[in-house]
Design a protein that fits this description.
- The complex is a heterodimer.
- In chain A, about 80% of the residues lie in helices and about 0% in strands.
- In chain A, helix 5 runs parallel beside helix 10, helix 7 packs parallel to helix 14 and helix 10 packs antiparallel against helix 13.
- Chain A has a single domain, classed as MetI-like (MetI-like fold), CATH 1.10.3720.
- Chain A starts with a helix and ends with a helix.
- The N terminus of chain A is likely disordered.
- Chain A has 16 helices and no strands.
- Chain B is mostly helical.
- Chain B folds into two domains: about 50 residues, no CATH class; about 210 residues, Orthogonal Bundle (MetI-like fold).
- In chain B, strand 1 and strand 2 form a beta hairpin.
- The chains are: A mainly alpha, B mainly alpha.
- Chains A and B meet through helix 1, helix 2, helix 3, helix 5 and helix 6 of A and helix 1, helix 4, helix 5, helix 6 and helix 7 of B.
- Chain A: Pfam families: BPD_transp_1.
């Protein structure tokens, strides 16, 4: 094989080196062209466009179609948003929600990853398969099922609370009959359930990634530390965590990005875009743009703010990935 | 003792993770009186397919049946898969087989565009779709999902192409095969498994997507399944039996596909983070 490839290749190169080089140079660009066009037109151009739109007052579809002109308002949309106290509520919701969800997802995911690494073969396979189910379930249907579990009449949670002894339930929550209780009515409870749904969806990815990381690390170190009598807590922070630091870095950044722009789960759980007290940036942008009366410019400005926040996080991510590609 | 505690924790995790999926399927098989009884049945006491029959034969929205939405979703998802697979294969070959000036820039761009919050693109893409006259058509969604699935598809396929030994193609070239023939007869069959895996991801992206489908389609007959489902449940008093049956039919293909390729998901996303 080696002789076969070597001989004619050098012969070909000797015959016509210039032609060969030119062909090699052009072909990759031709192969890339369709992908570049698609990414350019469908991702990069709209990204620029959303920034452009945020400087105009766009309140009708006819403006979008180009039938009417676009009044330039400069930073008007931004000053409108930033001077509205409601924006602070939305920003607070978004940041607190993302922080809580990243933390909970990472903690639960890591614990499950560590657990899977310690379980026996059969048990680990069983648990991992169940965890995969949660991961595979589409955000839409997963959320619908949780909504059914929290249904105010026949939902499982309502039934569980009804099953509590009346005295206990009364002294703890001040009510014993939970039928008809609106689980989604108070913003805090809504966010708690949304967190449950999002963490349920996202911890499997963390668990499986942490497990993959653990498998790649020699287990002698852990055993040695354990033999020396180190507590599991110390073993984790002194050995596991430093070894898996790059994995954790990327997982935290990815989770942050995902949790900052949660949309489907919130949209389904809230039943649309009417529940303003629980708004976060992505649904706020959508509601301003598409709920009548439409305000595309304002929605675009909110989307730009969301993108800028994520851009900072993405910067960290790209730096981390590139550093690791260099190392390996 | 420790073993029991570990296994107990494992069972709890398994229960938490799998329960909603179990509950969805279980509810879909219960007759309505069991679903709405005051004490929930863990297992359907009288399993029935009545809810499946209802959604498959009846109309979710007047004049349009579940199967119509299913077909809409399938058209969109399959078209996305075919287009994105084709384009991604070309680009992945370029990146994996050639060294050229802009190679690294292209790879960095791939990483960066995957991080663009798609939610932020609803408004400008809505504008583009309006201008192109594609509003209220399925191609508007195919185009959108093509853009969304392509970067990850190229990123993933790149590894598969790189894994095919270059010597095979060289040998074919020596035997007189043209570049196109080498691509079709040598590279393509060897990359096919990777292409299948990549396609499944594109499929899942397109199949699950809600926001854009909600925004770009106005005519109920052209709704994709996710949009139809958000309309379908919670219209009046939610009738959980049919809703869970529809959810099950929507979810099962995704779960099956997903389990086929989940391994690659981890390696694709945490690319290079775990050595060895």
């Amino acid at each position: 094989m080696t002789t076969l490839t070597e001989v004619p290749e050098t012969a070909a190169a000797r015959e016509n080196p210039a032609r060969r080089r030119r062909r090699v140079d052009r072909l990759p660009y031709l192969l890339l062209l369709p992908a570049l066009v698609i990414i350019g037109v469908l991702l990069l151009w709209p990204l620029g466009q959303v920034v452009a739109m945020s400087f105009y007052r766009l309140n009708s579809v006819r403006q979008l179609r180009g039938d009417r002109e676009w009044p330039w308002v400069g930073l008007g949309n931004y000053t409108d948003i930033l001077s509205d106290p409601f924006f602070l509520t939305v920003l607070r919701n978004t940041v607190l929600f993302a922080a809580a969800n990243v933390l909970l997802t990472m903690v639960l995911g890591t614990l499950v990853g560590l657990l899977l690494n310690r379980l026996g073969r059969k048990m680990a396979t069983f648990v991992a398969s169940c965890v995969m189910l949660a991961w595979a379930t589409p955000a839409l249907t997963g959320t619908i099922v949780w909504k059914w579990i929290f249904d105010d009449t026949s939902g499982l949670v309502t039934w569980l609370f009804n099953a509590l002894p009346d005295g206990l339930s009364n002294s703890l929550f001040g009510r014993s009959d939970w039928t008809g209780y609106g689980w989604f009515n108070s913003p805090l409870l809504f966010f708690a359930i949304l967190t449950l749904v999002v963490v349920w969806h996202s911890f499997p990815f963390i668990a499986v990634s942490v497990l993959a990381g653990l498998k790649s690390v020699p287990s002698e170190l852990h055993e040695a530390a354990r033999v020396d009598g180190a507590s599991p807590w110390r073993v984790f922070w002194k050995i596991t965590f430093p070894l898996l630091r790059p994995v954790f870095g990327i997982l935290i950044v990815l989770s942050t990005i995902w949790d900052f722009k949660v949309f489907t789960q919130q949209f389904v759980l809230a039943g649309g875009t009417q529940d303003r007290p629980t708004f976060m940036l992505s649904i706020y942008s959508y509601a301003e743009a598409f709920s009548p009366p439409p305000k595309y410019g304002l929605g675009a400005a909110i989307a730009v703010i969301l993108t800028l926040i994520l851009l900072v996080v993405t910067g960290f991510y790209v730096r981390m990935v590139l550093r690791q590609e260099d190392e390996s | 003792m420790k073993k029991i505690a570990l296994n107990g924790a494992g069972l709890l995790v398994a229960l938490f993770a799998a329960f909603p999926v179990y509950w969805m399927i279980s509810t879909s098989l219960k007759p309505s009186r069991e679903i709405f009884s005051s004490t929930p049945q863990p297992v359907p006491a009288h399993p029935t397919l009545e809810h499946y029959r209802e959604i498959l034969t009846g109309n979710l929205i007047p004049g349009v049946s579940f199967l119509d939405f299913f077909v809409n979703s399938a058209i969109v998802a399959v078209s996305t898969v075919v287009l994105s697979g084709l384009v991604a294969l070309l680009a992945a070959t370029a990146v994996a087989r050639f060294r050229f000036t802009l190679r690294t820039s292209f790879l960095i761009m791939l990483l960066v565009v995957q991080m663009i919050p798609l939610e932020a693109l609803v408004i400008p893409l809505f504008l583009m779709i309006q201008r192109l006259g594609l509003y209220n058509t399925l191609p508007s969604l195919i185009l959108t999902y093509l853009g969304f699935s392509l970067p990850f598809a190229v990123w993933m396929l790149r590894g598969f192409v790189a894994a095919v030994p270059k010597e095979l193609e060289e040998a074919a070239a020596i035997d007189g095969a043209s570049r196109a023939q080498t691509f079709r007869r040598v590279l393509f069959p060897l990359v096919a498994p990777g292409l299948v895996a990549t396609s499944i991801f594109s499929f899942i992206t397109a199949w699950n997507e809600l926001i854009f489908a909600l925004t770009f389609i106005n005519d109920q007959g052209r709704y994709t399944l996710p949009v139809a489902m958000t309309f379908f449940f919670g219209r009046d008093d939610t009738n959980w039996g049919p809703v869970m049956a529809a959810s099950t039919l929507f979810t099962l293909p995704v779960i099956i596909f997903f389990l086929l390729v989940q391994r690659r998901m981890v390696s694709g996303l945490v690319a290079g983070a775990v050595k060895g």
